[in-house]
Amino acid sequence: MSMTQVYPWCSWFKDGRTSLQDEPRSGRPNTANNDWNTARVDELIKVDRRVKLKEISLKLDIPKTNVYEIVHDKLGSRKICARWVPKMLSDEHKRQRVEISQILLHWCQQEGDETVDVGPGGDHRVRNKLLEHLITGDETWLHLRTPKTKRDSMTWL
After folding, report:
1. Which end of the chain, N or C, is less packed with Cβ atoms under 10 Å?
2. Phi-psi category of residue 89: left, alpha or beta, with phi > 0 → left and psi -120 to 50 → alpha
3. What's the distance, CA 37 to chain centroid?
4. What is the mean pLDDT of the segment spanning 15-34?
5. pLDDT per residue as tens digits for the range 31-74
6. By its UniProt entry, which InterPro entries does this protein fall under (predicted)?
7. How far is 60 from 98, CA to CA, in rounded Å?
8. How does residue 112 score in pLDDT terms, banded at 50, 70 and 90?
């Protein structure tokens, strides 16, 4: 920290300041981060998951920094592998995962285990019947066009 930053802090604490938190001060209040704008941003993302923060900012006439705060802090999304993904699963998503896991567990218990000898390392238990029928992964669509850049192909989830 430079001395030009230290001097004002010293004078503030000599004058009686006791908190390190940023206290309210005069100036223009932040009015862009409200429920109405949050709903508008959420709607734009649902319509086009490849929309960029800059495009949202221009369409809604909201500063890009505020759009970023709405998307990351209020909507709880982040971009991963060109898609916006919620940081936290909704209760509905959690319920669906539990139901599917219970179905797979029940099916796995009915099918039973088969023992497979895998080389000199010894015996490994493998659920062959289950693995023959169960494939996990994400659905991927391949288009006949190549996006301009990876950034252009990013989507919101």
Report:
1. N
2. beta
3. 19
4. 77
5. 778 889 999 999 998 888 778 899 999 999 999 999 999 998 88
6. RNaseH_sf, Transposase-MT_Hybrid
7. 39
8. low
Residue 146 in tokens: 């190549």
The token duo for 66 is 């505020």
* Tokens matching residue 47: 């319509």
Alpha helices (H) along 19-124: 35-47, 53-60, 64-69, 91-111
Token representation of residue 124: 């490994």
CB 83 within 8 A of CB 156: yes
Count the alpha carbons within 13 Å of 56 in the hemisphere toward its beta carbon: 28
* CA–CA separation, 120 and 126 (whole Å): 16
For the chain, the residue count is 157
Global pTM value: 0.41
